[in-house]
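Ticket #4471: structure output looks truncated?

Reporter: J.K.
Steps to reproduce: submitted the chain below (459 residues) through the standard prediction queue, then opened the result file.
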Amino acid sequence: MSNTVTTVNPYTEKNLSEYKLLSKSQAEHQIKLSDDCFQTWKLTSLSERAKLMHALADEIESAEDDLVELMVSEMGKLASQGKQEVQLCAAICRYTADEASKELADEDRDFEPGRAIVTKQPIGVILGIQPWNFPLYQVIRYSACNIMAGNTTVLKHASNVFGMSQLIQNLYEKAGFPKYCYQSLLLDGKTVNELISNKHIRGVTFTGSNEIGKKVAETAAIHSKKTVLELGSNDAFMVLDDADLATAVEACVKGRMINNGETCVSAKRFIVTEKNYDAFKQKFVEAIKAMKMGDPNDKDTDLGPMAREDLRDELHEQVTTSIEAGASAVVGCEIPDRQGYFYPPSLLENVKPGMPAYDDELFGPVAALIKVKDDKEAMQVANDSRYGLGGGIFSKDVDKAIELAKFHFDTGMVNINGYGLAQPNLPFGGVKSSGYGREHGGFGITEFVNVKSIMITEA
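Returned output as attached by the reporter:
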């Protein structure tokens, strides 16, 4: 097995940089340094941590050009969307810094012989295993909240974004965080799985595929270590009888094609009632046919390349398998003959259970269109999935949509009459095979803390 990794630009198909992987023993040494740092970092005041976290937000904003350049060159993100990711990460840092004191505050509780305190204390080194599709956000999302809680963190990033991995560590250190408080370790998958058992690793947070995530959780469970999992989804967006079609089409196209279609919490299955089906289909097709594939640096590009050739080929295999099982290709669904790992904006209809387009996650710019009789059937089909990360409802009756979202839609997040990505002040996470645990909204700050009872007997 090679001990080096070469990153590749998915637009030019040219090599970018070569990185040397750490051995297991080298990684274990770095983890020990992270644990040594934890012994002092856990004693720092929340005000000092917050000051540094605000400084990290400033450093992220100052490095916007470098960060966006890496996003474009390493994984093909549109430059305009890269800038949005940078601003989101700065906002996450500031929100986390400002909310930590509330989330981590001690609580006084009744205790008959005297008094009691419930306190939330950090537990140690948290291992993050993160994907490439939001290469800055995925890392800041988990690391900022854990470091604010007093933990230290080590990251195993996806190998195609190792440049971003190293830059993030530089930003933490430039902001003034102590060395080894945050570390990016250049590792392969086998090595990082072996490191979960390391005695200094106290928790693991993973974002990625369902299959790998469950293996990570299994390994962690053997050693009684807590995990937070975000395992992707096959989000259903329902266009009900009383939907505003213009609103629905605009949001659904954005929700499917954003980030080149490579987003876990993106719109993937479009469940449309008979009343609106033909009109929605026509408008959706018109919108995606007008999209321009091209250089992700160009302002008029709507869709960049997929991040890797193998990911593009896997997506096409899912599409082909669905068509062979009876789905119809309305538009796209063919690999273009051009430089770059492009896949065109695509639409499948007549999608049924048993097809990858219905059962699995299509991680790329392919939409699955499903016709249903009425609103009731729409909800049944939406919930007919092993996943449950996000979803959407389009209806002019907002009160009805809220009721459906609260009591009937089996997901962790719901959009009503729109599409939105992560927000610093709102919890992020799913149910069923989309994983468990929450990040953002203050919730991530307390995922890896020891909620400790202190009982004081008084005379």
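Triage note (M.O.): checked the attachment and the full token line is present. The chain has two domains: 4-232+434-457, 236-423.
Status: closed, working as intended.
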